[in-house]
Design a protein that fits this description.
With 256 residues, this protein is an all-alpha fold. The chain has one domain. The chain contains eight helices and no strands. Helix 3 (75-98) packs across helix 7, helix 4 (112-139) runs antiparallel to helix 7 (204-230) and helix 5 (141-170) packs antiparallel against helix 6. The longest helix is centred in the first third of the chain and has 32 residues, at 5-36. It is globular and about 55 Å long.
């Protein structure tokens, strides 16, 4: 059955709106889960660390290299951009730690920087998720649906991670809720942005590579040590492995 261009555009816009709402809901539910069970924060942090690392190794890295290969990016160049992302985040993190002075002052107002940087980068990641979904729908409806499902499978973890990064920074629930709201709305803004302009996928390689570096640092250098510091038990490490396993299953079993 023939569908006019006008109706095809309207259907795509409706699908994009529905996907945006779903990503917001999944992110928000993940954050609410983290807030409700913060007494078990060591387990949640352990799971979050595994989920973040899993997203890097099983989702972002393969997607970055494959996309780069499609546009003739040299692998060493992509790897260098990933390393720059890692080092850039490390310097931002070290700055926030140095500005805090001693560990006794870790809840001083200056020490909130680390939590804001971490939560902010996750919100930015959610915004990029929305951009990727929107741009995928510009390519084709089938590709857009596939990418949207891939984004949805880890949005719940994104909500958990956003709240955790904020709580690790200053421990304030009100601040964590604000970051959670920003994270839940970010995919909608990302999708909405793609209705205003188009961008070559070639340059998305740079963005994805930078975020690979960011999340490598967040998972391995912040969330894993923090979860172990709070409660150095076998179950904490097991939750990290579980977080990685769930992301692996979601990405590979679903075929994304």
């Amino acid at each position: 059955m023939y569908i006019s261009t006008k109706w095809a555009i309207l259907i795509n816009m409706l699908l994009l709106f529905l996907v945006g709402i779903e990503t917001s809901i999944m992110t928000f539910l993940g954050g609410c889960f983290a807030l409700h069970f913060k007494d078990r924060m060591h387990l949640i942090l352990g799971f979050s660390a595994g989920a973040v690392i899993g997203v890097v190794f099983f989702d972002l890295l393969p997607e970055t290299f494959l996309l780069g290969q499609s546009y003739n990016w040299e692998l060493p160049t992509v790897a260098t951009i990933i390393a720059l992302g890692f080092v850039s985040y490390m310097m931002l993190d070290r700055y926030s730690v140095l500005s805090c002075g001693s560990r006794e002052d870790e809840h001083d107002e200056h020490c909130e920087h680390g939590g804001h940087i971490g939560a902010g980068s996750l919100v930015a990641h959610s915004y990029i998720d929305g951009l990727v979904v929107g741009l995928s729908f510009q390519t084709s409806q089938a590709l857009g649906v596939i990418v949207a499902i891939a984004v949805l499978v880890h949005d719940f973890s994104d909500g958990i991670n956003t709240v955790n990064m904020s709580l690790v920074g200053n421990g304030k629930t009100t601040t964590a809720k604000r970051w959670l709201l920003a994270g839940a709305l970010a995919p909608l803004f990302g999708i909405g942005t793609t209705l205003l302009f188009t961008i070559s996928e070639k340059y998305l390689v740079v963005v994805l590579a930078i975020f690979c570096g960011f999340f490598m640092y967040i998972g391995a250098s912040e969330l894993i040590p923090e979860s172990h510091h709070r409660h150095p038990r076998f179950w904490t490490s097991l939750m990290t492995i579980l977080g990685m396993a769930i992301i692996y299953a979601a990405v590979n079993i679903a075929g994304f």
